Amino acid sequence: MNTVLQPAFDAAAFKTTTRAQWQAAAEAWHRWGPFLGDWLGEATETMFDLARIGPGSRVLDIAAGAGEQSISAARRVGESGHVLATDIAPALLERAAADAKEAGLSNVETRELDGEALDVLPAGSFDAAISRVGLIYFPDQQRALAGMSRALRPGGRVAAIVYSTPERNAFFSIPVKIIRERAKLPPPLPGQPGPFSLGAEGVLEAAFAKAGLRDIEVRRVPSPVKLPSAAECVRFERESFGALHQMMVGLSETERAQAWQAIEEALRAFETSDGFVGPCEMLVGAGTV
């Protein structure tokens, strides 16, 4: 009997696709910035607290996106501090730099940089390294954590926000499930990054411990997605979640439209008298170098 082997996960191709997705979605992601700030505000402040970011801190932001949290960090560190916002997609960083300038912040710098190639940064040059919903998408999370640790001074803190389990994040896991079924996609390959790759009980702690971090703490932060309607949540995901579009590449235009319609119908279960409230739970983890 012949055994059919699944192809190995291609990390290089994944990164190339991811960069292209975020280049294309940069305008929309930036436009949704105020919503992102509200939605992830509590988790972001928790990340800052666990990273011990304060006046004068030098902060490295990995997978910074359009920089909404970078700017929040810059306000927190003040004029004597500094934030370096890095991302694989320069179109996002252009918007981060423009927003920092408009806000009158001179302590924010942007740099196109792969989160798994941080050895180009001077060792020991930061007090904290943060990543908001970025680490989960790195093919080699240990390499990313090692790079963050190297960039920090002794006693510096690494902190990250990740999704917990699919069951606690139905606003995202339901669309993923519907698209996977309709596109007849196989289960994720071993080692494949994704939204829930660090969400199971103890997984984030174990990843930090493997990277040599100590004084590890992980907190759960309920982060419900509050929007006027399920249709508005679908609009947010269509415009901003490039990974969902990538999952649909094998579907025809009609099939894609039908999938989005099915997603909206499923998400209507979370409409309330106060609008759409999509279940979402973030984990915020941190450890000391």
Describe this structure in words.
Helix content is 43%, strand content 21%. The chain has helices at residues 11-31, 33-39, 41-50, 68-77, 90-102, 141-151, 170-182, 203-210, 230-240, 242-247, 253-267, and strands spanning 58-61, 82-87, 108-112, 126-132, 152-163, 214-222, 225-227, 271-272, 275-278, 281-288. It has a 7-stranded mixed beta sheet, sandwiched between helices. β4 (126-132), α6 (141-151) and β5 (152-163) form a beta-alpha-beta unit. The longest helix is centred in the N-terminal third of the chain and has 21 residues, at 11-31.
List keywords for this structure.
289 residues; alpha/beta; seven-stranded mixed beta sheet; three-stranded antiparallel beta sheet; 10 strands; 43% helix; globular; disordered N terminus
Q: What pattern of helices and strands is seen along the backbone?
A: HHHEHEHEEHEHHEEHHHEEE
Strand content: 15-25%
Percent of residues in helical segments? 40-55%
Can you give the mean pLDDT? Answer: 94
Q: In short, what is this structure?
A:
43% of the residues lie in helices and 21% in strands. The protein is built from eleven helices and ten strands. The chain has a seven-stranded mixed β-sheet, sandwiched between helices. Strands 7-9-8 form a three-stranded antiparallel β-sheet, covered by helices on one side.
